[in-house]
Amino acid sequence: MKRAALLALGVVLYAVAAWMVAPGFYDGIAPPQPYNFTCPPPQAGANSKPSSGHVDIKVIGGVSDASSAYTDDGQIVIGFLPGAFEADGKNTISVDIKPYPTCPHPAGIQFVTNIYQISATAPLAKASNLDMLFSNLLPDPDKIYSATDPTDGWQSVGNAQPTRPSVISTQTSSLGYFAAGYRSTSPSSGAVTLGGGQTLPIIVAILIVVVILAGLPVAVLKRRSGPRRDRK
Amino acid sequence: MLLIEWSRTLLAQRPGLTLAALVLGGTALVAMASGWPPERLGLGASKFGLRVIGGVALGAVLLLPAAARPGAAPLLPAGLALAAVVVSVGEEVAFRGALYAALEDIGGAPLAIGGSTVLWTLAHALSHPLPFLGAVAAAGLLLALWRWACKDLVAPIIGHVIADLAL
User: Fold this and answer.
1) Domain coordinates in residue numbering, chain A
2) Helix, strand, or coil here: B9?
């Protein structure tokens, strides 16, 4: 009886503790940081505005230094190799990353990240690695798209791959506007479909039904075996 | 155990190494229990059906707070399902299996429950932000209490796997 009571106390403690944090704490896989949306989906809850970023890259001996530019919230990172820019007599090259203030919906593409504008005071001479963080509240993207005009002409960039949880990476040879997403006619492979937020309750309901259905025969067997012991 | 957990957490953050780090880390955790008889780890075969039902019930309890909330909860990416299973089994065998048994030999059930919960929480200190550690600790305590109350590790393994696969 004492054991059952302590176990019940453990259940209550867990329920309270788990209720106090955002749903979803992966075990062994860190819960992703909340994504700062320009246009948050309804399930996002409290949302902070996405950050911008800036870096000045030195040019030494006509070759731009290795560097990276990223937003303060780390939602987009672009890495530059030495000589990544056509320096053309410049002493420094400035790179700016700005979240685009609105959320255009180009035909056939569903974006799951913000759109970011990456601009520099010199054009790229070498392909650069681009990492984009995405939210776990929307389906996973399978491509990174780029455009020179955010309202039109979006094309997928390189061979984008998820490189770690909630990050998709690719290489780009030019700067402009970037966003991660998938073709809207077919959801991305391995996408997490939330089912309107009903998936988890259904899973739990099934588990409870399984426990009840499987537990009933056990309870009946126990009741039947009880009187036999008494007769002995 | 802490070294394995922290190492795999740090490795999993490197591009391209996530799956390998999780699978290798989970396997290494299972190896920590080598030498212990299955019964001492709580892996006996008696009343196996009840243990399985208990595991399903634990899975439901672990998922209930997230399921009861309005709005969508994040689900595990499909590509990480195998890793989640290996890590779940590894953590249960290591923390509620071998560590629990070792601590029980030294200081009885209170030390086994408390010690395994504290070390389990510390093991997640690198992978989880501070606000999540309370929930991690409470989950560890619940699973350790089951291990003590039912002398069983099968149910915590099943419950942990279900929770990690679904959330």
Assistant:
1) 42-183
2) helix
Q: Is the pLDDT of residue A186 over 70?
A: no
pLDDT cut 90: percent of chain A above it? 45
* A21 CB neighbour count, 10 Å cutoff: 19
The ipTM (two decimal places) reads: 0.90
- A3–B149 C-beta distance less than 8 A: yes
Domains of chain B: total: 1
Say whether B138 and A13 touch across the interface (CB within 8 A): yes
Position A227 confidence tier, pLDDT thresholds 50, 70, 90 = low
pTM metric for this prediction: 0.62
Calpha distance A90→B47 (Å, rounded): 76
Q: Residue A195: is its pLDDT beyond 50? A: no
The boundaries of the domain holding residue B56 are 2-166
Q: Among 2.60.220.50, 1.20.120.1810, 3.90.550.10, 2.40.10.120, what is the CATH number of A42-183?
A: 2.60.220.50
Nearest to A169 among B15, B77, B87 (CB): B15
Q: Choose the closest CB to B53 out of A164, A194, A211.
A: A211
Task: Please tell me the distance from the alpha carbon of residue A231 to that of residue A227, in angstroms, as a whole number.
Answer: 6
Residues A90-116: pLDDT tens digits?
999 999 999 999 999 898 899 999 999
Rounded to whole angstroms, the Cα distance separating B21 from B17 reads 6
